[in-house]
Specification:
This protein has 113 residues and is α+β, with helices and mostly antiparallel strands. 13% of the residues lie in helices and 22% in strands. It contains 1 helix and 5 strands. The strands form 2 sheets. It has a 3-stranded antiparallel β-sheet, with no helix packed on it.
């Protein structure tokens, strides 16, 4: 840790899968408005699977995003077979949406996608 740096301590969420946060936005909204943050859903209310991507730690090559981890695992094993590079970093991307909580006067208003 950098000298003088303060260690970061995560704050546990108040609930799951939605976390209620106080408004701290410069946008025109009451300061006491509560907001929810949760998984982004499509127009049918379905949460798509988060894409996975595997990156080689020895070179700049990566698998590209895929909905199934088996696809990125296959890429990693083939990459190792061709290059001998045995270490990888996997990234999973979860898309989130922030919306006014039911207690908010903004609840039900259209928000930008």
């Amino acid at each position: 840790m950098h000298p003088g740096a303060t260690p970061w301590t995560p704050t546990p969420p108040k609930s799951h899968p939605l976390i209620t946060l106080p408004a701290s936005s410069p946008h025109p909204a009451p300061t006491d408005t509560d907001w929810n943050i949760g998984l982004r859903r499509d127009t049918n209310g379905v949460t798509p699977p988060p894409p996975h991507e595997t990156a080689c730690e020895a070179c700049p090559l990566r698998s590209g995003p895929a909905p199934r981890r088996t696809d990125t695992n296959r890429w990693a094993t083939q990459h190792t077979a061709h290059t001998g590079h045995p270490t990888f970093r996997e990234t999973t991307t979860v898309h989130l949406t922030v919306s006014p909580a039911p207690t908010s006067p903004l609840h039900g208003e259209h928000t930008r996608p």
